[in-house]
Design goal:
The complex is a heterodimer of chains A (about 160) and B (about 325).
Chain A (H helix, E strand, L loop, with lengths): L2 H7 L2 H21 L6 H30 L5 H30 L6 H49 L1
Chain B lengths: L1 H7 L9 H25 L1 H21 L5 H28 L7 H29 L3 H21 L13 H8 L1 H24 L4 H24 L12 H29 L1 H4 L1 H4 L5 H27 L1
The chains are: A mainly alpha (about 160), B mainly alpha (about 325).
């Protein structure tokens, strides 16, 4: 909810990176989650991180792509963002299913179950890390472009 | 709640039910672009109301699948997703058409984008409340009633002047305008790809037909790209809009949401399984105190979810 207001001060690239980082840390926490006592603290932080990352990533990404495309493509790109979120969510879950059933092979014992969950959480951590890497690359490209523009402006000013 | 549904259908491993969620999301993702195009041509209001009605009808069936098997449950969930796909893009169109003068378009976009997680978490909380108080089909039936009420109010309240363009004359013009070849290849490719992965969870990758489906979906995806690039007059995804930067942003976002999709299902499973996995509880699983502790844990989880929601809303 606060994202539109944060976005006035922070560039969408940085915000997008932050959101992905939150998701990566969130799933890392989930994969190290233990079944006993200490677990509450971790789960709580985990939920906050995930919820915030989720809340922020869509508006940030929407702003990011809207800043790049032409006016007449805006509607289509906004729809594309939604398409990707839903399809990604569904496909991620379906792929996690494959990971789970391959790692927990055999009976549904507690240990097997736990192994399946762990594998699934590590998969999601991998996905988030990949997303984060892409995000950082995008931010670097953007920064490079901005510095080029600035340089050009300075040169024009000095003339 | 998933565990209750699982026990109703006598599924040994509840996690196969993640196919119902995955199927729903894949259906939404697959049909969004098409729905946007339909809204452009037939008017967003009409498609919006149809989407609400469609969702309402299928929600009734999802609830009624209590008396049937899990395949009806999963299938009707997927069909429900189609309705959501119709609502999403047309809703944005309507919102922008109704935007009060002076509001920035970017604000509308951002607010709209923020609504989706709000709905997601609100829905999760609502579902668990219904599950606690009544039995799970009511979750879907109450959803259906809400949608129905929304549809009726929407029909009377939303001004229908919000139509973008006129109807193109003739059937052929409509086909070209809709980009039917692109739609067919695109939908089938995305749908089959998702289906193969979802089904693999249930039957395993050793089934050769899954590989065939996967292969077909990839061929169709190639066909889709060719059609969009060379054939379509009004392509669904114009190549000029899909720059490298846009593409990679979408990839990153997709990864993030895949991660969230996994998290949202498996963390809950992890916690609900606590009753059987926790070393504290495993010693005497049937004693009354343990069951009490168990319920407290789950209630605490709900409270913490609500709290985190509040934190996010207020921060």
């Amino acid at each position: 909810m606060t994202t539109p207001f944060i976005l006035r001060r922070v560039r969408p690239h940085s915000l997008f990176c932050a959101a992905m980082l939150a998701m990566a840390i969130g799933s890392l926490l989930a994969s190290t989650m233990a079944t006993h006592e200490t677990y509450w603290e971790r789960l709580f932080i985990n939920i906050i991180l995930m919820a915030w990352g989720l809340y922020t990533s869509v508006p940030a990404a929407t702003m990011l792509v809207l800043g790049v495309v032409k006016q007449r493509h805006r509607d289509m790109v906004a729809q594309l963002v939604f398409m990707v979120t839903y399809y990604g969510m569904g496909l991620g879950l379906a792929m996690a299913g494959t990971v789970e059933s391959n790692t927990m092979s055999g009976k549904l014992t507690i240990r097997n179950r736990l192994r399946g969950y762990k594998a699934v959480f590590w998969t999601s951590f991998g996905l988030a890390t990949f997303g984060l890497a892409v995000c950082l690359a995008l931010a670097l490209v953007e920064r490079g472009r901005r510095s080029v523009v600035q340089e050009r402006n300075q040169r024009r000013d000095s003339h | 709640m998933m565990n209750n549904i699982g026990s109703r259908f006598q599924i040994e491993n509840v996690n196969t039910l993640s196919a119902s969620i995955a199927g729903y999301d894949v259906a939404v993702g697959t049909f969004i672009l098409v729905a946007g195009r339909l809204g452009e041509i037939f008017g967003p209001k009409r498609i919006f109301i149809i989407g609400l009605g469609w969702s309402a009808a299928w929600s009734v069936i999802v609830g009624a699948s209590f008396y049937s098997t899990q395949s009806l449950y999963i299938t009707s969930r997927v069909a429900q997703g189609l309705g959501a796909a119709l609502i999403l893009p047309t809703g944005l169109d309507l919102l922008r058409a109704l935007r009060p003068a002076g509001t920035q378009e970017a604000i509308i976009f951002a607010l709209y984008a923020a609504m989706s997680p709000v709905g997601l978490i609100g829905g999760a909380i609502g579902a668990s409340i219904f599950d606690e108080l009544t039995w799970w089909p009511w979750t879907y039936w109450s959803f259906s009633i809400t949608l129905f009420v929304l549809g009726v109010t929407g029909y009377f309240l939303i001004p229908s002047a919000a139509r973008v363009g006129g109807m193109p004359p003739g059937r052929r013009a409509i086909i070209l305008e809709l980009d039917i070849p692109g739609i067919m290849t695109g939908i089938m490719s995305l749908g089959l790809f998702g289906y193969a992965w979802g089904q693999a969870h249930v039957v395993g990758w050793q089934q050769p037909y899954l590989w065939t489906i996967l292969l077909i979906s990839i061929v169709l995806a190639a066909a889709f790209v060719m059609i969009e690039a060379y054939y379509a007059q009004k392509p669904l995804i114009p190549s000029s809009a899909l720059s490298l930067e846009v593409f990679w942003t979408l990839v990153a976002l997709g990864c993030g949401w895949a991660c969230f999709g996994i998290w949202s299902f498996y963390t809950w499973q992890f916690v609900e399984r606590l009753r059987s996995t926790s070393p504290l509880l495993v010693s005497s699983p049937n004693s009354r105190e343990d069951r009490h502790a168990d319920r407290t844990t789950i209630r605490l989880l709900h409270i913490s979810l609500l709290l985190s929601l509040l934190v996010v809303l207020l921060s």
